[in-house]
């Protein structure tokens, strides 16, 4: 029954311990203190929060655990954290300070066995495999290192492999759509949502309530967004009323 309820997930991209937001992964602007922003979403009715330490991998450092701990203590909804997670010890450190799920991207591409290991030790429900994609002619390719490195891996086959290895969810971000507010990339989101049995979180490009309704109608289980929530363009409680009025089941 749970899967029938669609989820709204605000995303906190964090750099230098501040929430930031850019367009197509660049030109970042400040959007506030992670704890304040997370608390606001908790109160506004978000279903989960996703916290991504966006420069951890590129700066070759671990996720900022102390910031995560502060955020986790003040939330009553699930918290997913990603960025710089390379091994079981990193996962353990995050789960022990109150995270509910971890999100891996670059480390999963570089070492696919990590998906199996985390799923085996902590359960599939705890593993979110984040896939940043960019269209290249007819196919979509997977990017790592905060969107800086093209792995040349086909996104559809990688999503399938991640599911087979034990991922509990896929967080699918279109780099082409990211921050543009022109809507999600319906094409790749629909293909992957229809192919997989596990939930797919659509990410990149939400600009209006209709975009979120549309991505739910084509099969996404959750919609992740940042700019529209950070800068108060759309309030989560109002969005949920709109979705309910359009026959999309959400938790109020």
TrEMBL record:
Record Pfam families: His_biosynth
Subcellular localization, as worded in the UniProt entry: Cytoplasm
Alphabetized CDD domains for the sequence: HisF
Quaternary structure annotation from Swiss-Prot or TrEMBL: Heterodimer of HisH and HisF.
Taxon lineage: Bacteria, Pseudomonadati, Campylobacterota, Epsilonproteobacteria, Campylobacterales
Catalytic activity from the UniProt record: 5-[(5-phospho-1-deoxy-D-ribulos-1-ylimino)methylamino]-1-(5-phospho-beta-D-ribosyl)imidazole-4-carboxamide + L-glutamine = D-erythro-1-(imidazol-4-yl)glycerol 3-phosphate + 5-amino-1-(5-phospho-beta-D-ribosyl)imidazole-4-carboxamide + L-glutamate + H(+)
Active site: 13, 132
Family membership noted in the UniProt record: Belongs to the HisA/HisF family.
Major localisation: cytoplasm
Species of provenance: Campylobacter portucalensis
One BP term from GO: L-histidine biosynthetic process
Full protein name: Imidazole glycerol phosphate synthase subunit HisF
Keyword list, A-Z: Amino-acid biosynthesis, Cytoplasm, Histidine biosynthesis, Lyase
Coiled coil: none
